[in-house]
Amino acid sequence: MRSHHDMGGLPAGPVEAGEHDYQLWEKRVDALMVLCSSKKMFTVDELRKGIESLPPDAYDRMSYYERWISSITSALIHRGVISIDEVRAKLADIEKRPPETAGEKA
Amino acid sequence: MPHDDAHGHHHDHDHDHPHVHGGADHHPHRPDADDTLTYCRQLEIAVRELLVEKGHLTRDEIRGAVERMDARGPHLGAAVVAKAWTDPAFKARLLADGSAACQEAGITFDQSTRLIVVENTPEAHNLVVCTLCSCYPRMVLGLPPDWYKSRAYRSRAVREPRSVLREFGTELPDSVAVRVHDSTADMRYLVLPMRPASTEGWSEAQLAALVSRDSMIGVTTVKAP
Question: Domains in chain A: how many in total?
Fold first, then answer.
């Protein structure tokens, strides 16, 4: 069966010529992808597999770099670079920070 | 790969349940929002800080990678195109080995990606897409525009390229063949557009200013001044 990401040739509507300026968090996700793969923490193929195996509704709902950070996180946990518990604890800590400055620490 | 994400949800793959991945279901979908700390933005902060704290990356490396990507953009591709238009030997090298010729022209590659340059001629027009994801000649054009990653472009560019081209205002005579190149992570394409008439004697810098990003993706052509 054709996977959800494999959409070449399927019917679709007109191309909306929209674009947006990439936000800092998106650029940082991109940087994490480039750096972690060049340091062999995971391969780009693993990341792609993570994105391609997202459930179709999640794939469609998430924006591009949301899919990437979701897959990066899964790959790093899968490879044992970071653990689920560490991510959970860190997210709980971030929840307590003022939203404006939550991402400025690193 | 199992989807044991940071919330500990396990996603089996029956795909029937109408929600949940990574907790994004707690928030409405906001593709471009930067003013709300969505779950995925929190995840970016968490992963970045953990990698720094555990010594896998430094803050300088992350900042450097962001700055390197910020410095990339269509001006790099335009300079390569203009050089190819004015230097036949360079053009031959560019078409023979896009990666080597671009690196010779001072462009840096972050990953070992092959760049293939395809030349538009009066007989054939080239169009670049990545149907499976979003692979893009980022070393020469920077990050892709949103439409390049959209379902509509990825689905239709390979089936009805002339209709897609028309939506970008590009009408090609039936006598011109349209060749669509589907990119992969390891193989990216850049279109070498046709040099417009009435630009004889122009400098590389003058020519480069005519070359748009979209013409190097192949959805438009370079217009005569």
Answer: 1
Instruction: Say if A49 falls within a structural domain.
Output: yes
Both structure tokens of B185: 């992570």
In a mutagenesis test of the A interface, which of B14, B16, B44, B149 is the best target, namely the one with the most A β-carbons within 10 Å? Answer: B44
Q: A-contacting residues of B 140-199, CB under 8 Å?
A: 143, 145-147, 149-159, 164, 167-168, 182, 185
User: Which domains are seen in chain B, by residue range?
Assistant: 39-71 (no CATH), 74-217 (3.90.330.10)
Query: In angstroms, what CA-CA distances link B103 with B77, B114, B182, B191, B211?
Result: 12, 11, 23, 17, 20
What pLDDT tens digit does each residue of chain B (225 aa) get? 333 333 333 333 333 333 333 333 333 344 444 557 888 999 999 999 999 999 999 999 999 999 999 999 999 999 999 999 999 999 999 999 999 999 999 998 877 789 999 999 999 999 999 998 888 999 999 999 999 999 899 999 999 999 999 999 999 999 999 999 999 888 999 999 999 999 999 999 999 999 999 999 999 999 988
* ipTM of this predicted structure: 0.90
Q: What are phi and psi of B127, to 5 degrees?
A: -135, 140
Global pTM reads: 0.83
